[in-house]
Amino acid sequence: MKIMRDIFDLILNTILGVRFRYKNKITFGEGTKFLNSFALISKSLQNNVVIGNDCLLGAKLIAEGSNSYFIFGDRVYIGNSKLICRVGIEFESDILVAWGVTFYDHDSHSLDYT
Question: What are the extents of the domains in the chain?
Fold first, then answer.
């Protein structure tokens, strides 16, 4: 299922482009670019994603709450990572996040990782 979702997102991002696909859900500044791995997974999130200028994003934004929000300052780079949000996640300006990182704003993940 996860692989199918990733392939689906990649195809839609390639064909439609991220800016067109999420035009009613995100606000972004000048010079911001999206990698094809970028995805926004939410059923009700509307205009609660604000992205600054000159950013490069390839992250998967997963909104678990109806009022979840994501805010990115200027010159933020996030590779193919995950941001899982129930309330809100904010990154100020000049942030670099490598590939494969996962951010949570809550602690509902399992502590038993075996």
Answer: 2-104
